[in-house]
Amino acid sequence: MDNPGYRRGSFNSMQSGTSDEDMVEIAGATLDSSGTDDVLPLDRDVSRGHSTFNGEGLNGASKMMDFLEEPIPGVGTYEDFNTIDWVREKSKDRDRHREIANKSKESTWALLQSVSDAFSGWLLMLLIGLMAGSLAGLIDISAHWMTDLKEGVCLSGFWFNHEHCCWTSNETTFIERDKCPQWRSWAELIVGQPDGAFAYIVNYLMYVIWALLFSFLAVSLVRSFAPYACGSGIPEIKTILSGFIIRGYLGKWTLVIKTITLVLAVSSGLSLGKEGPLVHVACCCGNILCHLFTKYSKNEAKRREVLSAAAAAGVSVAFGAPIGGVLFSLEEVSYYFPLKTLWRSFFAALVAAFTLRSINPFGNSRLVLFYVEFHAPWHLLELIPFIMLGIFGGLWGAFFIRTNIAWCRRRKTTKLGRYPVLEVLVVTAITAIIAFPNDYTRISTSELISELFNDCGLLDSSKLCDYINDNTTKTTDDRAAGPNVYTAMWQLALALIFKIFITIITFGMKVPSGLFIPSLAVGAIAGRLLGIGMEQLAYYHHDWVIFKGWCSPGADCITPGLYAMVGAAACLGGVTRMTVSLVVIMFELTGGLEYIVPLMAAAMTSKWVADAIGREGIYDAHIRLNGYPFLEAKEEFTHKTLAMDVMRPRRNDPPLTVLTQDGLKVEDVETLISETTYSGFPVVVSRESQRLVGFVLKRDLVISIENARKRQDGIVSSSDIYFTEHIPPQPPSSPSTLKLRKVMDLSPFTVTDHTAMEIVVDIFRKLGLRQCLVTHNGRLLGIITKKDILKHMAQVVNQDPDSILFN
Predict the structure, then answer these.
(1) Which segments cross the bilayer (predicted)?
(2) What residues form DSSP beta bridges with 780?
(3) Contact 214, 146 (CB under 8 A)
């Protein structure tokens, strides 16, 4: 669709927001934050700098001006909550490339500019990686410190967390390595004694008070400064990457508030993680940095390529998994992912991981808190418990999605949604009160996962490693569990029940909340419990058939930490329906190639079981709940309907509103625009013939007419508007004529009325269309928008078609 009439720039006084019944709508996602604000500014003086016109002067012999010969601010831009035109944006980029290539042959300076343009993409990826890695390091360090602040403070420096405070102490013992004189609990500071019932109550109260303070600050900041900073952000990013525009969602305020409140929310002890929101943070970085390069700031399709790479960088720093980040962006969030974007995503993820590694937030030269290495191999028969964990993960994922969506729908439709601050405070209080007595829920979820993944060694002091040594030689072979192991198992079982239910009501509150870490924790607890059970079964019954031949007495057969890792992957896969990227992320976490098969078996089993219960992952379910216009590329449309069954107008509806290529006056168009809520109009030869000429957007019409009134003398309400190539001679006394052919799309996508809807749906998905016109023998019959398709797809599966409307 090479149409030189499409231009970009600022936008003047367009009426904001079209109704839910807009004739022209698109479903995609576009994130646009302007250079000075999150909302595209209104250009108050669009005539500034444009004083050259074609023609013989404003009062010359030719009073008709071929408008839009130069770029006009506002034409070709998009309104909020609308969809970009992928075809037009790609066409603009090809024109830009062609112009640069032609100029590069003329001079050395133009050649250097061409090289600079080609290099700008890689420079942008470098900046995104540096910024995302730095922010991730800052979030990790701050969250670790504030989490420990709930339990005490370091006297040698209040900015030290518990672990760093005791690093330099010479008075710590190996058994009690977390105790040192420099670190004081709140009970020691307030009542002067570390132990006893009163000290326990003081520590309990301080834990709850700090948790409530952190969560109150988080929800207050989100509510006051950046409402878009709440939640995970991944459903909205998927929608934005598909072409939809949500202005401000990736803006400066959202980035600042999300970074601050993410630290507060994680530190409050709520059952949420920072990994999902880190993807949102990285995409904010990408969107803001796009404004440094005109190539990306002026083209919404190119910007989305950058955001896909930024999402990969976000997962890279969240899990320390650069390759997994690239695959996550490709598998889970991206709508358009060309090969060039794959390379740049890899580079951005690499730079982000390198930056985080240089910051070293955990002080162990690792990118994540729960990095582990296993040394014992697994046996083929262990695939049975691994598949059992996969089944559990699938059941948990399906259960979580249904219950969480039901709770979020209740929040949206009842009074509960009117009191977000109170909801967050109540959930935080419940979480803190229940979590404190249990050692495994009191610590941060990342530390819990780290302990569950851990392979017990000779020097471990954890209760999970309290095994009975029945010989004089210290080994790490399978041994009988001691009393502390059974105590830990009871605590873990209670923690599992608590995590399952509290995560359901936590995810979706008005604070930044990721789902990766809680899902990993649920699976890790279930896996560790199963692993310990298998280990003790092998120890006491090594002569059973399932153990005979590969597990001899005293050998190190079972690794409970491996079961925890497989369970974590299964539960995360059940919730998100990730497969390839999930396995690679978990593999990069452990560094063990030999465990890929157990992870693959668990991930695939989890996906199959969850898909058998419900096809949607948690992000797709939230997209549908919020009514975002998103066409899922993974779903097949198998119903035998035709374009004529879906198009508007329907049989008893008023005729389609159209413009004719001539015979219209400015006042006619302005009246039509003010009386309708459509966002675009087909242009036909005449109302009698209904032969299609093109399609014009309402936004472009409004901006063009307003600019013409300011820039061209003689444009009045009675001026004629023409969309034709040649204008017939006008009487000398007639007002100036306005030619708007160049704001019209001369090659709109059309299908015939008998085209199968499965073909129409494929066209919309693969080309990212805003709308498609329906014709019969060249005569215009109607129009199909993305919203029409989404409504139709909801109807054929007996869902409420109005449920897809964006609110």
Answers:
(1) 119-139, 204-226, 246-266, 278-294, 306-330, 383-407, 419-436, 488-508, 515-534, 562-587
(2) 775
(3) yes
- C-beta separation of 775 from 803 below 8 A: no
Taking the CA atoms of residue 711, residue 74, residue 25 and residue 681 in that order, the dihedral angle to the nearest 10 degrees is 20
Tell me if residue 682 falls in helix, strand or coil.
Answer: strand
Determine the Cα angle at 692 with ends 686 and 693, to 5°.
Answer: 90
**H or E element at residue 358:** helix 339-359
pLDDT tens sequence across 1-27:
444 333 333 333 333 343 333 333 333
3-state DSSP helix/strand/coil % of the chain, to nearest 5? 55, 10, 40
Q: Per residue in 676-706, pLDDT tens?
A: 888 889 999 988 888 998 999 888 888 888 8
Sorted by sequence, the CB contacts under 8 Å of residue 524 that are 6+ apart come out as 448, 449, 452, 453, 564, 565, 567, 568
Q: Given this model, what pLDDT does residue 429 score?
A: 95
Tokens of 72: 């006009």
DSSP 381: G
Q: Which residues contact 504 (CB under 8 A, 6 or more apart)?
A: 400, 403, 404, 407
Instruction: Give the tens place of pLDDT for each residue, 514-535.
Output: 999 999 999 999 999 999 988 8
Contact 478, 550 (CB under 8 A): no
User: Quick one: pLDDT at residue 648?
Assistant: 87
What distance in Å separates the CA atoms of residue 305 and residue 330, rounded to the nearest whole number? 11
Q: What is the pLDDT of residue 208?
A: 94
Tell whether the model's pLDDT for residue 58 goes beyond 70: no
Please report which confidence band the pLDDT of residue 718 belongs to, taking 50, 70 and 90 as the band edges: confident
For residue 30, the Cα-to-chain-centroid distance in whole angstroms is 12
Distance CA 124, CA 344 (A): 9
Neighbouring C-beta atoms of residue 686, cutoff 10 Å: 13
Chain CA centroid to CA 65, Å: 46
- Please state the three-class secondary structure of 631-679 as a single string: CCCCCCCCCCCEHHHHCECCCCCCCCCCEECCCEEHHHHHHHHHHCCCC
Q: For residue 311, give the nearest of 297, 327, 329 by alpha carbon.
A: 329
Distance CA 657, CA 649 (A): 9
Query: What's the rounded mean pLDDT across residues 269-276?
Result: 90
